[in-house]
Amino acid sequence: MNKPLETIKVSAGEDLMAFIPHMVGYWPDASIVAISMLGKKLRATMRLDLPPDSTSGKEVGRFAAIAATQLANDKGADGSLIAIFGRQDWRVPGGLPQAQLYKALRKAFEAQGLPVRDAWFIGTEHWRSLECTDARCCPWPGKENLCIKESFVNAEFIFRGSVVGRAPMEQVRELIAVRDPEFAATVAAAGVVGGEILAGSMVINGCGVQQLTATLQAWAFSLELWPKPPDPHMCAFLLAGLANHSARDAVMVLLATTAEYALAGAAGMSLVGPDTEPIMVAKNWYGGNQAAGRPLNVDCLSDDHLVEAAYNFSNILIGASEPRIPGEEPRVLDWARLDKAERFLQFLAQASDDTDKAPVLCILGWIQWCKGRGSWAGQYFQACMDYQPGYRLASLLEQLLSAGHVAECARNPKTAWHRDNQDKETDLDEAA
User: Fold this and answer.
1) Are 344 and 222 in contact (CB under 8 A)?
2) How far apart are CA 135 and CA 229, in angstroms?
3) For all residues of the chain together, what is the average pLDDT?
4) CB 236 within 8 A of CB 186
5) Is the residue at 245 inside a domain?
6) Burial class for 388, CB neighbours closer than 10 Å (0-12, 13-18, 19+)
7) Residue 109 in 3-state DSSP?
8) Which residues of the chain have pLDDT under 70?
9) Which end of the chain, N or C, is more open, meaning fewer C-beta atoms within 10 Å of its C-beta?
10) 91 in any annotated domain
11) How far apart are alpha carbons 256 and 367 in whole angstroms?
């Protein structure tokens, strides 16, 4: 049974401004926020970085077209709202800092069937309507931003448990920082086997069929046990396995589906071959009998599922949700599993401060991208490339972000991830 939607009434401009940081998760800085509407219902919320003030007219038009195309992914919407979070206050009539951009946004949204019904400019200290320059009803430089935090809607969201956090850059830095240097040093030491770096060996034999099976078993077992943390030897083994790009891709599919599905997909994509080296496992993994009764059994998958796994392997990696057969329902990623995997990956990121941290950060960015959280994804991709400059997958996904490409699973309401407080409806009564 579907949970009944709660309704929050938005009756003034400051109420709507308070709605935005709760939907985005933080107070936007130098940003464009657009909200799609159906009638008076507020629907999807989208945030994009504000272009530099020096951006040319042609580039401004391109930016506006990308923004409108993204919001138009909400097929049920019939209008929009825009909030420009500027780098300074708008202090005098005729001096709107982003006037050219606002004009381009209105034109682009109109062309997509999402006419702008109202818009606001939020500066560093004051905010005001973009539609009213009459000093008699909207005195300059506008209302103080403090009234947003004191609004009814902000109080209501806080009462319901919603918290506005810090910007993604600050939160990501904290989430991936080494918390226990002694534990991280033990993990690093465990990654050296017989005088050789474990990751280097895993690059060579990481996708022999038995080696990949052992790697996926270890990931599945560790994820199943979480929040019980793995020991340093298992951490080192999990980190090392990601050094092989095909094994990394299989792990990503595992996190979104199951280990069996990932193994079947990798086999169907011809990513596995014969094992030419002894199978590497984490210390105490088989010796401690931790894998007993936990074999990967792809025989449990029907022929149709094997074909589907191979077809969907690459689709999952690019955030697609296309059905295998036209007319079938799209495959839904296991969001509860991915949410759990996100916390587990953050723990692994905290267990290393070396180059083997990069693939973990890339996968964390990929999860955020699949969720439609581009700001978070971008911060993880950048952190990944800080540890391994030019890391290819992070670079490619970053390019998709920059081009305005949203993962398909995030665009489809049937397959998209939803936060709890995004399940609530919000009615716009009348914003002043």
Assistant:
1) yes
2) 60
3) 85
4) no
5) yes
6) middle
7) helix
8) 1-12, 286-304, 321-331, 419-432
9) N
10) yes
11) 9
